Amino acid sequence: TYSHLLLAGLGEDPGKVTVLVHSDVDLQPTNRKDVHSHVDLQSTRRKDDLSLLPWVHVVEAFQAIKQPLPVNLKFLVTVAEGTAWEGGGTLNFTCLLTSKKRFLSGVRYSCITLDRSPGTRFPCVIYGLRGLCYFTVEVTGADDPSHSDAHSGVYGGVLYEPMGDLLFLLNCLVDERGKILVPGVLDDVVRGEEPPSRDAEPDVEELRSTLAVPRLAHKEDSRRLLLHLAWLPSLTVHAVEGAWSGPGARTSVPLRVKGHFSVRLVPDQTPDKVCLRFIEYLNKVHRHFRRSPNAIRVELTSSARPWVQDPDDPHLGAAQRAVRTVLGGRPILTRAGGSSKMAAVLQRATGGSVVALPLDLDMGGLKVLAAYLHEVGQLDTNWH
Amino acid sequence: TYSHLLLAGLGEDPGKVTVLVHSDVDLQPTNRKDVHSHVDLQSTRRKDDLSLLPWVHVVEAFQAIKQPLPVNLKFLVTVAEGTAWEGGGTLNFTCLLTSKKRFLSGVRYSCITLDRSPGTRFPCVIYGLRGLCYFTVEVTGADDPSHSDAHSGVYGGVLYEPMGDLLFLLNCLVDERGKILVPGVLDDVVRGEEPPSRDAEPDVEELRSTLAVPRLAHKEDSRRLLLHLAWLPSLTVHAVEGAWSGPGARTSVPLRVKGHFSVRLVPDQTPDKVCLRFIEYLNKVHRHFRRSPNAIRVELTSSARPWVQDPDDPHLGAAQRAVRTVLGGRPILTRAGGSSKMAAVLQRATGGSVVALPLDLDMGGLKVLAAYLHEVGQLDTNWH
């Protein structure tokens, strides 16, 4: 996997507000051989890629009606190729921060677009996202990596089977209601904090039918569901990599297995601290409770800080007005459960405010972006 | 997957003993398009396929030296295509049993060849194999099978995640030392029974280094290791099928996951009874202890009865003499941990005795087979 960073600017009018637009282009592998040398927008097919093209169309729209852009625009495009979860892959953000003086100077407002709405039909503006720690835990039975498996008919019964250890470890992460069991991880979760009434509670029936599950957790109470969707951490085990993943039945004893899980974090939790707790916990459980001679290795393969913006920031008000102008009704401010590496990074790097707009093209997404630029252009230009 | 049964005979001399030879040809998918219409031995590359060709060579050898075969031979070839574990795939044995009168009449002795030696360097003759129950357990979150996954950023925290349920269930199968925790499953395991001294205890150091593991189970006591290798049941979790098995990290919540595990059985256990216990147990654990609203489905996808032969049967003595003639030393009689569907089936269908020869071509395997036919030819022809 590769990561690239593209920076671009449009306009340097000192009388205008400067808005930074972030988009993440994840190039999935295509048939094209030259994908590494060209950032070919046509080669990308992910819904996330909607985050860049609409901005191009909006700029073209202003040009078509011969109107000047109401703001100076800066584009920050992160390009990950066939990797990872949303938000910039393995990008090293140091390069961004060191170039801050030149590129980020004057940026007061940043906007990221999300392809996923936070599970509500209401038009909304997002002022917070959960962070993320993505872990792998590998259990290795054989010292020699070329020993990938044994045969259960020949050796079943005399081995400390790595799969058994992995199942035990993964089963110790959360209880049946999804509560994280790792000591200390929930210490920094502000207990009293609750979604204010502006955060829309999900429609339980709609949520259940979207997921097609028989029953949701937390007694299907809409307020508690909102809490667990965006205001509390969650943990998901994504996969167990074993010896074999094809069809049919094999009777091998995998001697090297790897579990994948991720934890969504909320403000006041930091990936560093959470990561340490998990590594410490899993090693302790393995050594003291499982007491298996197999080796384990816990790795943090990706992380993102949680992000939350002061909901009273005028920037969010401008975004809400833009949504209302286009879609009508009363757009809500809300926090969502997804993660974006760049939200917290931009907040820290610019010292300004960040807003996330869920971009639903069916719901007039392009017009919302144009209206957003218009509204932000009216804001105070006094900055620093 | 397809299964076929090939029957062939060579010689009908009433003055000779009739020996049935079983071999299992597992056709792995090849590049050839016509693999379904031809049983092409060259298209098979599995070590197991050694079980048929050597017999052909042995017959040719007798012909080359112009010696009559010392026995009447019957070939029973089971052909599975790209399936399952050893021993005949999804073959329906009814067809074998109903044709018993014609094809199996007069068969007193049956021989199966195994490509896997039971973990000992000593030449040996095998008089017992463990049985097998192969299970899958599927946990389904979404009612609608087209809902294959959700996104942990959007929905993490409000779902009863099927993976969590599956990990919990699989973790309840055995304890950390490999003891099966399912009530009743060990009831039929004869406790007092122990390997007699003729059964060779494994060389601990050799076993450990073959597997390249840091430590074996059961305190690395060679007698206890032998017990667990062949005289006691074992359970292995082979794989967890999740939503994704490719490289990289995905943050999906699989809504349909499936675990694969198998249980090796010992005499007095029957697949039917064991199967019922497992299905009952997993459903009970899920309903009463996990209390998740997700649906589970436990399936027995394959099974084999355990097989054990009276070690005093003269047939085994003949096989031992054959091994001694070719390889020297004192071949041991032993039981092994693998499984063969046909061993128990042939024992029941013929009413005669069955022997298994581990076929190591480096150790003069072909000569052993020829010597075996010679020795069996000397046995009493009075039968029925």
Which architecture of the largest domain in chain A would the CATH scheme give at its second level? 3-Layer(aba) Sandwich
Main pleated-sheet profile of chain A: 5 strands, mixed
End-to-end Cα distance of chain A, whole Å, is 38 Å
CATH superfamily of the largest domain in chain A: Zn peptidases
String of helices and strands of chain A: EEHEHHEEEEHHHHEEEHEEHEHEH
Instruction: Please compute the radius of gyration of chain A using only Cα atoms.
Output: 23 Å
- Into which percentage range does the β-strand content of chain A fall? 25-35%
**SS field, number of helical segments of chain A:** 11
Q: Residue-averaged pLDDT of chain A, rounded?
A: 83
CATH names the topology of the largest domain in chain A as Aminopeptidase
What order do the strands of the largest sheet of chain A run in, or round the barrel if closed?
A: 1-3-2-4-14
CATH class category name of the largest domain in chain A: Alpha Beta
The assembly state of the depicted protein chains is homodimer
InterPro entries (chains A, B): Cyt/Met_Dipeptidase, Peptidase_M20_dimer
Organism (chains A, B): Timema poppense (Walking stick)
GO molecular function, one term (chains A, B): metal ion binding
Protein name (chains A, B): Peptidase M20 dimerisation domain-containing protein
Task: Characterise the protein shown here.
With 384 residues, chain A is of the alpha/beta class. Chain A folds into two domains: 3-129 and 307-377, Aminopeptidase, CATH 3.40.630; 131-189 and 232-304, Alpha-Beta Plaits (2-Layer Sandwich), CATH 3.30.70.360. Helix content of chain A is 29%, strand content 26%. Chain A has helices at 53-64, 94-98, 100-104, 152-155, 162-171, 204-211, 222-231, 271-290, 314-327, 341-350, 365-377; strands at 3-10, 18-27, 72-81, 107-114, 124-129, 131-140, 149-151, 234-241, 252-254, 256-265, 295-304, 307-308, 332-336, 353-358. Chain A has a five-stranded mixed β-sheet, with helices on both faces. The two termini of chain A are 38 Å apart. The interface between A and B is large, with 87 and 87 residues. Chains A, B: GO terms for molecular function: metal ion binding; peptidase activity. Chains A, B: It comes from Timema poppense (Walking stick). Chains A, B: InterPro entries: Cyt/Met_Dipeptidase, Peptidase_M20_dimer. Chains A, B: Residues 127-287 form the Peptidase M20 dimerisation domain. Chains A, B: This is Peptidase M20 dimerisation domain-containing protein.
